[in-house]
Amino acid sequence: MSVKRIVPDLHALEPGAGRAFYEDVLGLELVMDQGWIVTYAAQGNAAAQLSVMAEDATAPVVPDVSIEVDDVDGVYAAARAAGHEIVHPLTDEPWGVRRFFVRDPHGKVINVLEHR
């Protein structure tokens, strides 16, 4: 299993309200806007991203970070075998990812995903 990218998930009541800051001040580009979540990326470096979200469309909590991997099923099996709390079950989402949420030893919620 390898990690493809790690994206911090910032919590905000209005995810799109910071657009001018992230684009005009930091030079990031808006690459996704689903209303409840917006994602910005560095131009020419899709691995350098951050998301701002008010809620999660299908999960009970907002994650603290998203980690994209090349084998989400393998990571899910490893997390369960190690006894870590699964916060949101392994799910195929309508926006093209397979993911689950797991709580890390520090209490942070990690969204582990793979694009399909």
Give a written overview of the molecule.
With 116 residues, this protein is mainly beta. It has one domain (3-115): Roll (2,3-Dihydroxybiphenyl 1,2-Dioxygenase, domain 1). Helix content is 15%, strand content 48%. The chain has two helices and eight strands, in the order βαββββαβββ. The chain has helices at residues 19-25, 72-81, and strands at residues 3-11, 28-33, 37-42, 45-53, 65-69, 86-92, 97-103, 109-115. It has an eight-stranded mixed β-sheet with strand order 2-3-4-1-5-8-7-6, covered by helices on one side. The relative contact order is 0.20.
Task: Please describe the topology of this protein.
Elements: E1 3-11, H1 19-25, E2 28-33, E3 37-42, E4 45-53, E5 65-69, H2 72-81, E6 86-92, E7 97-103, E8 109-115
Parallel strand pairs: 1-4, 5-8
Antiparallel strand pairs: 1-5, 2-3, 3-4, 6-7, 7-8
